[in-house]
Specification:
Keywords: Aminoacyl-tRNA synthetase, ATP-binding, Cytoplasm, Ligase, Nucleotide-binding, Protein biosynthesis. Homodimer. This is Asparagine--tRNA ligase. The two termini are 35 Å apart. An eight-stranded mixed beta sheet has the order 6-10-11-16-15-14-13-12, sandwiched between helices. Helix 4 packs across helix 6 (253-274), helix 4 crosses helix 14 and helix 6 (253-274) runs antiparallel to helix 8 (303-312). Strand 1 and strand 2 (34-38) form a beta hairpin. It has 478 residues and is of the alpha+beta class. The longest helix has 23 residues, at 126-148. The chain has 14 helices and 16 strands. The model has no long low-confidence stretch (mean pLDDT 93). Helix content is 32%, strand content 22%. The structure holds one RNA strand of 77 nucleotides.
Length: 478
RNA sequence: UCCUGAGUAGCUCAGCCGGUUAGAGCAUCUGACUGUUAAUCAGAGGGUCGCUGGUUCGAGCCCAGCCUCAGGAGCCA
């Protein structure tokens, strides 16, 4: 059996005269002799030239867009313009036919909306090929970064019993019969008879379990699927998404911010050096797309310039209180251009405010810290002022919140007091509180939405286009 | 969930004030051409106008309800 060479390797080769075998999917077949073939190893196609005068007519007819073919031939310098090398085909074998009458992907521009409805085939387009190679590179860089720093990768449970984290609506997990569940004497569904002997849900965060592990390994991270049953219909929310959650003992909020910033710069830097061609294509795609927008709505920087800017510049760090001052004194606020005007300290920031800070005022990623306790979660460490907590959110242009994190409240009395105030049942989270009873220490962590990172890095604008098979309200096809 | 907009050929879209046989480009098919770059040229086929009901002599177009999608908001990562 002849060994297959990946197209990326062939395109980089100068071994003219040697024989190679490539296998891939036909992108176009031009002029009855030029096959543009792609195997996913690179965004670039290789051109295989068929001698149509000496090739069976019935074989030529089967070389159609989308067909899987194997080509064996001689690697030669290309006679035509547009590519350096090509393959002079000696033999072409159709591995899998593709009926052009019914194959949805045509050699033309398709709308992202159409491709979303054909998510099973969209990997075969340039755009989605590039997006998912970048996604892979980012995921790999995440593990490489933490591994180099000595973090332990924890797999926290996907099915959880706690319904107490307050991170959003949860999906129920049950084996009970939906139409006729067993009931107790009070007429309520009797979860004692369920698979786990209690009500369970899909996880909304691995943080609480992550904290337990950090109290032994020092530094850990999780990277896994997360589920939110919110009826969210936006370009930045999914019902099933992947989240990275580092948790570090002996880190205060500043250590936490430093880690998050270095981390983001590292993974983006990895893609800048390893996925150059994909980024160039995605950057070009973005330019084309923005041509339809009015001048003042277009990005100032190209995709690669934007990513280089992020890796080369410090993120802006401001407290919530300073941010409120900036917003309050902004022209937008004074001219009542905000839909929600900033009046008093304590209000939650709306998307328009975050966007103003990031895109108009600072024009770079911003880390907002020390939010009012009333708009943040129970586990965040209370500041000396008694009003604010050691929270930090990282906001980036075009996406908004990329990271949400905090220094955790390690003082048992303050934590339980806060839980009581917010109606979080302490008895259900006894195991979490045990970390505050047995060797508690200063610690911090954050959560980063992986798809939002992919969005930012690829310049795509809809989160459903950076995950293979998006799960959103009314959509679980594929 | 709320606001706004959209749904017409495989895809992208046009369709006038409600009027006779619903169009274009691309794709597909047939033929020609053969160093092309989303090849080109000629011809052909292709429609449940999102669904249901209503108004009307007559509805792709008007009205009501529903479904789906997109953008924005909320929830958040």
């Amino acid at each position: 059996m002849v060994k297959r060479t990946r197209i990326k390797e062939v395109l980089d080769s100068t071994a003219y005269g040697s024989e190679v075998t490539i296998k891939g999917w036909v992108r176009t077949f031009r002029n009855n002799q030029f096959i543009a073939l792609n195997d996913g190893s690179t965004i670039n196609n290789i051109q295989a030239v068929v001698d149509f005068n000496n090739t069976d007519e019935s074989l030529l007819k089967r070389i159609t867009t989308g067909a899987a073919v194997s080509v064996t031939g001689e690697l030669v310098e290309s006679l035509g313009k547009g590519q350096k090398v090509e393959i002079k085909a000696k033999s072409v074998e159709i591995l899998g036919d593709c009926d052009p009458e019914t194959y949805p992907i045509q050699p033309k521009k398709h709308s992202l909306e159409f491709l979303r409805e054909n998510a099973h085939l969209r990997f075969r387009t340039n755009t989605f090929g590039a997006v998912f190679r970048v996604r892979h590179a980012l995921a790999f860089a995440v593990h490489e970064f933490f591994n180099k720093k000595g973090f332990v990768y924890m797999h926290t449970p996907i099915i959880t019993a706690s319904d107490a984290e307050g991170a959003g609506e949860m999906f129920k997990v049950t084996t009970l019969e939906l139409g006729n569940p067993p009931r107790n004497e009070a007429g309520e569904i009797d979860f004692k008879q369920d698979f786990f002997g209690r009500a369970t849900n899909l996880t909304v965060s691995g943080q609480l379990e992550g904290e337990l592990a950090a109290m032994a390994f020092g530094e850990i991270y999780t990277f896994g699927p997360t589920f939110r049953a919110e009826n969210s219909n936006t370009t930045r929310h999914l019902a099933e998404f992947w989240m990275i959650e580092p948790e570090m003992a002996f880190y205060d909020l500043v250590d936490n911010m430093n880690l998050a910033e270095v981390f983001i710069k590292y993974v983006i830097g990895y893609v800048l050096t390893n996925n150059r061609e994909d980024l160039e294509f995605l950057g070009q795609r973005l330019v084309e797309e923005e041509k339809q927008k009015p001048q003042n709505e277009r990005s100032e920087l190209g995709l690669i310039e934007k990513l280089e800017f992020v890796t080369n510049n410090d993120f802006e760090r401001v407290t919530y209180t300073e941010a409120i001052d900036i917003l309050k004194n902004s022209k937008q606020n004074k001219n009542k251009k905000f839909q929600y005007l900033i009046e008093d300290w304590g209000a939650d920031l709306q998307s328009e405010h975050e966007r103003y800070l990031v895109e108009k005022h600072f024009k770079k990623p911003v880390i907002l810290t020390d939010y009012p306790k009333d708009i943040k979660s129970f586990y965040m460490r209370l500041n000396e002022d008694g009003k604010t907590v050691r929270a930090m959110d990282i906001l980036v242009p075009g996406i908004g919140e990329l990271v949400g994190g905090s220094q955790r409240e390690e003082r048992l009395d303050k934590l339980t007091k806060r839980m009581d105030e917010m109606g979080i049942p302490t008895e259900e989270l006894w195991w979490y509180l045990d970390t505050r009873r047995f060797g508690a220490c200063e610690h911090s962590g954050f959560g980063l939405g992986f798809e939002r990172l992919v969005l930012f890095t690829t310049g795509m604008t809809n989160i459903r286009d950076v995950i293979a098979f998006p799960r959103t309200p009314k959509n679980a096809e594929f």
